[in-house]
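Sanity check. The docking grid for flavin-adenine dinucleotide depends on where the pocket ends up, so I'm generating a full predicted complex first rather than guessing from homology. Inputs follow.
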Amino acid sequence: MTIRLVIIGGGPGGNTAATWAARLGAEVTIIERDIMGGAAHLLDCIPSKAMIATGGAVSATKRFAGMGLEQQTAEIDVDHLAERIDGIRTRLENTTTQLLDSQGIRIIRGEASFVDPHTVTVRTAAGEERIEGDAFIIATGSRPRIPQWCTPDGERILITRECYPPKIFPKSIAVVGSGVTGVEFVHMFASFGAKVSLIVSRQQVLPGKDPEAAAVLEETFLNKGVELLKGARAESIERSGDEVIVKCSDGREVRATHAVLAIGSEPNVEGLNLEAAGVELDSRGYINIDQHCQTNVGHIYAAGDVSGKLPLSSVASMQGRKIAEHLMVGTKANHRHLDYDKAASAIFTEPELADVGLAEAEAFSSGRKIRVTKVPFSSTAKALIHNDPRGFVKLISDPNTGVVLGGSIVGRHAGELISVVALAVTANLKVADLLDSLLVHPSLAEALSEAAE
Ligand SMILES: Cc1cc2nc3c(=O)[nH]c(=O)nc-3n(C[C@H](O)[C@H](O)[C@H](O)COP(=O)(O)OP(=O)(O)OC[C@H]3O[C@@H](n4cnc5c(N)ncnc54)[C@H](O)[C@@H]3O)c2cc1C
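Predicted complex below; grid placement will be based on this.
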């Protein structure tokens, strides 16, 4: 019997599940209400990286000045920038749609809601359609969190999605929230020449990340003239003519031409009528899943941000793939559960920060014995050649077995280099395996084999 799989949400979680399940023989329908490829993915993740890349090109001109080139001044053409971002988004949206089409997957544009555990209705432009399925995947993603004390106006008080690029380019901007998104926005606007203030609720940016890595970033921000308001909690943001005023609970305030909120996200569960399906949420409002991404209702799975695991496109896609395999093939002997602790992630600032697996601080607080080796990029020829010796590679391994447990990289291309450590962590490779790899010279990766010595 062919399994009829119905997927709600066309982001990385939904569309990856769709293509894998179709390949494995399912009859797949995917429902998307907004943009195929995913709202968080194509309206936030990708455009933010495109803006950061353009900002990076601006700051590269300064690096080139130390490489024997006359210093150039880069002018931003906002219309061109907007066109570029639109172009990338449209291309990725079309590629996703074509891939789904080519696999015979039915695409429905509309908003889905459960009627009972085996039926959804979809509100489309043409009316309402009922769809029955044997299995379902809820992959509806998340949206930026807007606190009660602030009303974004799309002009000067912004959510992240309104910044690619904003209607008026900020002369100065207050970034509220110093997690991954917050620091990326600080970097992005600072590289475009804006005066940036960052409201940091704790005493360190990027709470939970390697403090040494966070310290390198803080230092870079301070060198760029970014104002860091540590231990400050924003409690209101108001317009005052062409300015915004961010007030903090300790009395400090920031005046800027713009403010952007980067204080996390909320799951898209409203309107799904999950009660009719019997699907339970956790205490934070995300969908409860087990190690197979199954909800409490066996034939209903959840993938991506809505499942409350790591909010990363890569994790959403992997969950989608694992669900398709579990649904179509079952748990085979060689099945590997998705191990969220082994997910690599990167922060696209300058320098980039990336990590995977066990963190030094985590090992320290749990009392686990580890071996930590750290090598600065300044000791590699490649970093000097490219006039950017900032940062380091840190490898964390088991002192008894030599197995690589984690790593943290700060520097140029950290987001690419961490893949080597991610492979080592996933495949339980040893530091000796890294050391025995014949690497390219000159390359930044040489710092990894040096750290493995
Ligand atoms: C500013 C920012 C930067 C980011 N940068 C990165 C990064 O560098 N790397 C990274 O890995 N991740 C990044 N992320 C996170 C990443 O975008 C998300 O983790 C990822 O998109 C989650 O995929 P998803 O499929 O769960 O959700 P989405 O991509 O949001 O897709 C869900 C889809 O479901 C649809 N939907 C919702 N409800 C319904 C319904 N009832 N009926 C039909 N359709 C529905 C939505 O329209 C949406 O298109 C970033 C996020 C933000 C906000």
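Relevant for the grid: The radius of gyration is 23 Å.
Also worth noting: The mean pLDDT is 95.
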